[in-house]
Amino acid sequence: MAFVIAPRRNFSNALPAKYLGLTNIHNDGNASNNIFVVDLNTIQRVEFKDINANHVGIDINGLQSLRSYNVGYYDDESGNFRSMKLISREAMQVWIDYHGERKEMNVTLAPFDMAKPARPLLSASYDHSMVLTELVYLGFSAATG
Question: What share of the chain is helix, strand, coil (3-state, %, to 5)?
């Protein structure tokens, strides 16, 4: 599953399955894609350099992650990392925050009944104005296989 920011709604040239309906074998990673993706992966794809089959990634213009980390959260009281499984069928929530002045993207996960942890799971510095156009669409995409 992926949260997507893109300059268009038409992804008719994209492929399903591992490309999540966002890119294809010919354009994955191209700067002209102008897409920003936060993906939650349950399948490890060697061609995208996935770290494992249970991770969150921040992707720019394709499905190879700029940053990725194992799924989980940092406990506010102990500071310890608490692992979670995307395929657990347990409800979870995801926060995606972008700080424009610092040009920093933060992704935070937690169980559904928990407040947002203070420490994000994943952070990446990136100037989104280099990728995103003035008009963008926000949405979700998902695929199997």
Answer: 10, 35, 50
Query: Nearest Cα to 94, choosing from 131, 130, 57, 66?
Result: 57
List pLDDT tens digits, range 41-78. 999 999 999 999 999 999 999 999 999 999 999 999 99
Assign 39 to helix, strand or coil.
strand
pTM as predicted: 0.92
**Tokens for 25?**
């074998």
Chain-centroid distance of CA 10 in Å reads 20
Give the model confidence (pLDDT) of 69-126 as tens digits: 999 999 999 999 999 999 999 999 999 999 989 999 999 999 999 999 999 999 999 8
- 2-141 adopts what CATH topology? Jelly Rolls (2.60.120)
Can you tell me the distance from the alpha carbon of 3 to that of 83, in angstroms, rounded to the nearest whole number?
A: 21
Return d(Cα 135, Cα 115) in angstroms, integer.
32
- CA torsion angle 118 122 124 128 (round to 10): -80
Within the chain, how many helices (H) and strands (E) appear?
A: 0, 10
